[in-house]
Write a structure and sequence with these properties.
single chain, three-stranded antiparallel beta sheet, 3 strands
Amino acid sequence: MDQIIRVLKPNGVVTAQVGSQDKRPKQVENWKDVFNKNFGNATLDRVYIPSFDSSWNFYTSVNH
């Protein structure tokens, strides 16, 4: 995360695929903590992927 912050421009956006709440809810929750600790503004998006037959989650934050 330090390297991402180092190269991310001010107001730059970072998005990461963080797993599936359907299959590993704790993993998704841990990623929220990482994003909020480093950026303080994590937002979660959930996308259903038919070929995986589950929803996948993505956290996005803005570097302020």
